[in-house]
């Protein structure tokens, strides 16, 4: 590292630190901001984004051109691209979050204690949230909207490949805050592509209350390992569908097909299909036809191969793989308990589903399967904040503590105790 | 380190790892155990403790004798000591937790989405909890009771000075689990005083879901820094009482006196008293008399010293000090806003109180003060799980995420999504 590099790095650290300090100041204002004022900001952000559509497209075109020069792959280019529909998606997302209930300040039921004290819990913001993300510029608007609505302040650090797009979206966010009379430091975008900025955020436990990484496994892993601030993280999504004995097989095949093929790249996509042994012989030919039509490669266990000779054999590694692509592993199991054992051993506690007509087994599956989302007769690809009614999501948590599954406004809050007495002393 | 030491250390690592694996296995059983079975275990533990009182006292006598030989200080000896009253306290605590509602399996209100899906959240245990504590043997019973009631499994690592006492309590816990037919691995006590065991627990993110340290600042700090597992931690308790203009001064002095002197060593003890400028002249003589009678040293700000000449002057460091002893700093402020600014700057977000007759200011104080417990007309020393109706507490959290303040059964749980459909696919 040259002296000049060192100077630049220490400048980045100073800048990020100054942002942290400003954020902490703004947090006191946001934590008690009225619902109306917060909603006004969100709606003004949405209007500003709609009005700036051509500016956003132009900024995005710069990023796309630079990415193409760098030879960035098609999947990443797709995530990076803004289209008129995606721009409307951002503003609609903000309006949808504005329409959500404001949880801040809500009091739980009050308990009166023998001491005479009245004790309740009040919902409050987490404080200052850091969001570190990769190529998708819409995260800038989504994260800003969810954080402001929940009374939090946010520092955003987007991917360098989306630098111009993120700056343009952040300008619309700034206009919204200004219009509502909220401090501009409530949403700050780190204005450098220097990677030292990420390290600075991870170490800034004085000013940041939580970090949310959004991106690929590499990013999340690095952040989880290095952060001195609590992380709401999203690791693997190895999701299962189990087709139970007695299920409506034609409809069960539809659910399985949807769970796999709705979109291959999402974390709620099914990676392994478990079949009750009693149905395997009847349902496998239906599955083979349905998935062949979608050009999905099937990999089967021994019992599957015995019924469908010629299918690719699944290896042990298949059960632990998140394909995120047109591949599906299939395993025939003796019963629901064997299915649940497979899920406990190979799943990632993200989203797992049973397809069944038996109410007792459905209840037991729901209670026993330890996943952030447990589904009955629904496709795992529904695991998503918008589908769950959260307006938008800032991520899907695979943590156990604080919040599991899609994280919306409520997941960005916590509770404090409120204690009322009558000059009460402890005896 | 000699080769023999290395062998011992690798043996400890292997032992702790085996405990983790056994705990993970037991967690699947505990997570779906019936309320009746869990309560049976707790009540049987309580009975076993009562029945073993003389055994517990004998084991404790060994620990006390060894501690005295080591020249351990009086405060630590006090925490280490078991008395018949403290033994009854343990069994009563277990019965009180048994009497609490069982939150596990409870479903939130169900939302029906446009897709036809019905979405609710189900309360579930965190999984496997590690509790690392110092000298107080009652933590062994409290932690076991709270973890079992909340469907969790726990690995306990008590202080080496309480080794015999903890083993004896753990034996009673084991009897309770056995009587209820629950796996003994649901509560495991690390049976070595080797400090390598703590390091092993901190690194065991495969088997532990959360670590709760109970003890002094040094312990908590070390654990927070080293742990690769999420920590529910308890740092400083720099608690404030603000006496507002117009408060009933005689009663306000009682609250302040109680907040400081109920017990000096607890984290909810008041460390700084803030006085509204309009009342300072009248209330200070009353405070000086009241605290003099309790031999509490007072340290005042300049405005305080102007009214009470001869009082010790507080330095800047005083506002940031958790005395945990018979010392109190006093500051006169202009109004409630100045008091809240002082609390925001110097407080530890643990427990802060206002004493006031003004309903508007009480509401604003409660909303704006960002502490785990915010009190109105009550002494800060009430910040305690039993007083809050939690039955017992496994600690008081100064985290922002997951749980703030006294942590009881509910704080050891989380929620998963439960999604019900009718063979529903995503369009």
UniProtKB/TrEMBL annotation, chains A, B:
Pfam families registered for this protein in UniProt: Aldedh
GO molecular function list: glutamate-5-semialdehyde dehydrogenase activity; NADP binding
This enzyme's EC code(s): 1.2.1.41
Keywords associated with the record: Amino-acid biosynthesis, Cytoplasm, NADP, Oxidoreductase, Proline biosynthesis
Subcellular location: Cytoplasm
Chemical reaction(s) catalysed: L-glutamate 5-semialdehyde + phosphate + NADP(+) = L-glutamyl 5-phosphate + NADPH + H(+)
Name of the molecule in the record: Gamma-glutamyl phosphate reductase
Lineage: Bacteria, Pseudomonadati, Pseudomonadota, Gammaproteobacteria, Chromatiales
Enzyme class: oxidoreductase
NCBIfam families, per the entry: PRK00197.1, proA
Record carries keyword Endoplasmic reticulum: no
Function comment: Catalyzes the NADPH-dependent reduction of L-glutamate 5-phosphate into L-glutamate 5-semialdehyde and phosphate. The product spontaneously undergoes cyclization to form 1-pyrroline-5-carboxylate.
PROSITE patterns per UniProt: PROA
Record-annotated Aldehyde dehydrogenase domain positions: 14-293, 319-383
GO biological processes: L-proline biosynthetic process
Main location: cytoplasm
Keyword flag NADP: yes
Gene (name only): proA_2
Gene Ontology CC terms: cytoplasm
Domain of life: Bacteria
Family note: Belongs to the gamma-glutamyl phosphate reductase family.
SUPFAM superfamilies tied to this protein: ALDH-like (SSF53720)
Pathway: Amino-acid biosynthesis; L-proline biosynthesis; L-glutamate 5-semialdehyde from L-glutamate: step 2/2
């Amino acid at each position: 590292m040259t002296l000049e590099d060192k100077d630049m790095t220490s400048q980045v650290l100073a800048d990020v630190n100054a942002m942290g300090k400003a954020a902490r100041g703004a947090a006191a204002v946001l934590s008690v901001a009225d619902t109306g004022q917060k909603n006004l900001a969100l709606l003004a952000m949405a209007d500003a984004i709609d009005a700036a559509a051509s500016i956003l497209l132009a900024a995005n075109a710069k990023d796309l051109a630079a990415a193409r020069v760098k030879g960035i792959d098609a999947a990443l280019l797709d995530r990076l691209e803004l289209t008129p529909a995606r721009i409307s998606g951002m503003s609609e997302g903000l309006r949808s979050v504005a329409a959500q209930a404001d949880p801040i300040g809500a009091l739980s039921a009050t308990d009166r204690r023998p001491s005479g004290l009245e004790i309740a819990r009040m919902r409050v913001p987490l404080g200052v949230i850091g969001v570190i993300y990769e190529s998708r510029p819409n995260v800038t608007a989504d994260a800003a909207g969810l954080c402001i609505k929940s009374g939090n302040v946010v520092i955003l650090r987007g991917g360098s490949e989306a630098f111009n797009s993120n700056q343009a979206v952040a300008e619309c966010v700034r206009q919204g805050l200004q219009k509502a009379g909220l401090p501009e430091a409530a949403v700050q975008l780190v204005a450098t592509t220097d990677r030292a900025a990420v390290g600075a955020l991870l170490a800034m436990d004085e000013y940041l209350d939580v970090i949310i990484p959004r991106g690929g496994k590499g990013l999340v892993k690095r952040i989880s390992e290095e952060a001195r601030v609590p992380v709401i993280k999203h690791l693997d999504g190895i999701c299962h569908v189990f087709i139970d004995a007695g299920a409506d097989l034609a409809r069960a095949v539809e659910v399985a097909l949807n769970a796999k093929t709705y979109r291959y790249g999402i974390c709620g996509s099914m990676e392994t299909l478990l079949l009750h042994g009693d149905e395997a012989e009847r349902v496998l030919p239906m599955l083979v036809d349905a998935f062949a039509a979608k050009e999905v490669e099937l990999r089967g266990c021994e019992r599957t191969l015995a019924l469908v000779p010629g299918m690719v054999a699944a290896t042990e590694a298949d059960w632990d793989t998140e394909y995120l692509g047109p591949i599906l592993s299939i395993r025939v199991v003796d019963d629901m308990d064997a299915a649940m054992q497979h899920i406990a051993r190979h799943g990632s506690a993200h989203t797992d589903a049973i397809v069944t007509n038996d109410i007792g087994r459905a209840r037991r599956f729901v209670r026993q399967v330890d996943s952030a989302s447990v589904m009955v007769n629904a496709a795992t690809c529904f695991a998503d904040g918008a589908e769950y009614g959260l307006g938008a999501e800032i991520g899907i948590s695979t943590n156990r503590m604080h919040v599991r599954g899609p994280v919306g406004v409520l997941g960005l809050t916590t509770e404090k105790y409120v204690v009322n007495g009558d000059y009460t002393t402890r005896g």
